[in-house]
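Design job #97: recover the sequence.
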């Protein structure tokens, strides 16, 4: 079916979407995203109205885009176009931002970072949204999108939110950092994780300290292991037991 869509003209794909029974439309939308031909994407652009379509159909489109193994710049362009300046439900907005981060990351893996304007626009949309976010849940969504993108240039931003944010923001930023390959976990990243775990600058909730410790144990040094073990003497039993098991797993 995907192969058929790849050879179909825009008007044929559009007609198929319009005439299909409602229960079949999510399947056709997903197939059209997978086809990623100029015609199928153009048909989706005409067919999908984010102000009118059902939540189920829009989520199907955004999930299909996010999980596309080798997305095109045109697909990212379509997502950006559909999200730009629209009045969206919170669920669709969240899914759209996360999909955008995933698409940016995969296009950069294809070495298209500096070659396509859509990639720069997508990244700027996420960073601008993060800077302007006032509510904690919004900040968390943008940080998750940065985690999906996994771009090394965003590490300083993630570190800032990890060290200065409230609990949910700190743990989300650290989770995003844990998605980076080991070569990007620099001494600066480890210093911030140590400050969080050992509460050098301010107090952190248990979940934040555990997340920082796990980050250090993902890329362990003998001194970090020793210091984490020493710190367990002053912790409540549950937290200390969790960290001891993590250390044993790391050593194993």
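Job complete. Output follows.
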């Amino acid at each position: 079916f995907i192969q058929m869509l790849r050879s179909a003209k825009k008007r044929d794909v559009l007609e198929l979407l319009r005439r299909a029974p409602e229960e079949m439309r999510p399947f056709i939308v997903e197939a059209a995203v997978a086809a990623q031909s100029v015609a199928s994407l153009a048909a989706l652009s005409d067919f999908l109205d984010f102000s009118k379509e059902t939540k189920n159909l829009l989520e199907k489109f955004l999930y299909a885009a996010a999980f596309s193994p080798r997305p095109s710049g045109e697909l990212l362009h379509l997502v950006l176009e559909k999200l730009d300046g629209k009045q969206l439900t919170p669920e669709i907005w969240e899914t759209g931002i996360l999909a955008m981060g995933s698409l940016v990351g995969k296009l950069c893996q294809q070495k298209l970072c500096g070659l396509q304007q859509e990639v720069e626009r997508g990244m700027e949309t996420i960073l601008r949204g993060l800077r302007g976010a006032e509510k904690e849940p919004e900040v968390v969504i943008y940080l998750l999108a940065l985690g999906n993108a996994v771009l090394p240039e965003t590490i300083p931003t993630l570190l800032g939110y990890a060290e200065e944010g409230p609990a949910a923001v700190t743990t989300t930023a650290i989770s995003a950092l844990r998605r980076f390959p080991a070569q990007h976990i620099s001494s600066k990243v480890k210093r911030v994780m140590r400050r969080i775990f050992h509460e050098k600058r301010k107090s952190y909730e248990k979940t934040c300290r555990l997340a920082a410790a796990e980050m250090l144990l993902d890329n362990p040094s003998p001194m970090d292991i020793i210091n984490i073990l020493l710190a367990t003497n002053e912790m409540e039993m549950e937290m200390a037991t969790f960290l001891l098991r993590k250390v044993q797993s790391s050593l194993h």
